[in-house]
């Protein structure tokens, strides 16, 4: 059977109106019928894996060297374990993860003095110096720092943001750490 566009109904599904063939191509299976993957296995069900922490809004926190960024709010999470007691996110499955950290900073410098702050992502308490945010200035300033990276993480790895250095009159607020599994 042919329609006015040159399509022919497929014989495989007994003329189903939803299965059309071009004159040279045939539909391999009827979309109205049950679908069976070609390899016989069901496709994997992907369960979203993510977690987030944030600090209280509008609260300027003085960074303390050799401590972690202080998070006070657990955000949405699935497949991770965010913890505001030790300011960490633990991943519950191996994979490639996107890590995003951002924070607002404020620096109030007397003229001629400099201030700086360094935030470093840590995995299992070990700083990764290739994943850090460094901010230094000789003037008073307010700014937002952010960084996004991807890392291979194993089940049980613990992610934190470490304060590696801070000097001068520096505060941070609105800090967020988001961990999302991408593969």
Explain what you see:
This protein has no helices and 13 strands. The chain is mostly beta strands and 183 residues long. It has strands spanning 8-9, 20-21, 50-54, 67-68, 73-78, 80-83, 88-91, 95-107, 115-123, 126-137, 141-153, 158-167, 170-181. Strands 4, 6, 7, 9, 10 and 12 form a six-stranded antiparallel β-sheet that branches. It has a five-stranded antiparallel β-sheet with strand order 5-3-13-8-11, with no helix packed on it. Strands 1-2 form a two-stranded antiparallel sheet. Helices cover 0% and strands 51% of the residues. Strand 9 (115-123) and strand 10 form a beta hairpin. The protein starts with 7 loop residues before the first strand and ends with a strand.
Layout of secondary structure:
Layout: E1 8-9, E2 20-21, E3 50-54, E4 67-68, E5 73-78, E6 80-83, E7 88-91, E8 95-107, E9 115-123, E10 126-137, E11 141-153, E12 158-167, E13 170-181
Antiparallel strand pairs: 1-2, 3-5, 3-13, 4-12, 6-7, 7-12, 8-11, 8-13, 9-10, 9-12
Features:
183 residues; mainly beta; 5-stranded antiparallel beta sheet; 13 strands; 0% helix; 51% strand; disordered N terminus
Poorly predicted runs: 1-9, 20-27
Number of helices: 0
Order of helices and strands: EEEEEEEEEEEEE
How many angstroms separate the termini? 46 Å
Instruction: Sketch the major β-sheet.
Output: 6 strands, antiparallel
Cα-atom radius of gyration: 27 Å
- The percentage helix is under 10%
User: Outline, from the CA principal axes?
Assistant: elongated
Number of strands: 13
> What is the structural class?
mainly beta
Strand content: over 45%
Nearest-integer average pLDDT: 84
